[in-house]
C-alpha cells in the first residue's frame, strides 16, 4: 500500500516537472520581453511544477 502511494506521488511530481518544462518553453516563445519569471530560469519552472504535482498528489 505504501509503495503504491509512493509511486503515485513520484509520478505526480515527475508529471508536474514536465508541465513546468512545457510552461518554460512556451514562455520562452510567447514572453519576448524576458520579464516573465518562469521563462528566465528553467530550474524555477521545473521546481515550481514539481511542487504543484506534489501538492496535487497529497491532496487526493
Short description:
It contains 3 helices and no strands. By secondary structure, the protein is mainly α.
Q: How would you describe this protein?
A:
The protein is mainly alpha-helical and 60 residues long. It has one domain (18-59). The chain has three helices and no strands. The radius of gyration is 13 Å and the shape is elongated. It starts with a helix and ends with a helix.
State the helical fraction.
Answer: over 70%
Nearest-integer average pLDDT: 86
Determine the structural class based on helices, strands and strand pairing: mainly alpha
Domain unit count: 1
Order of helices and strands: HHH
Total number of helical segments? 3
List strands and helices in order, with pairings.
Layout: H1 2-30, H2 37-40, H3 42-59
Helix pairs in contact: 1-3
Features:
60 residues; mainly alpha; 3 helices
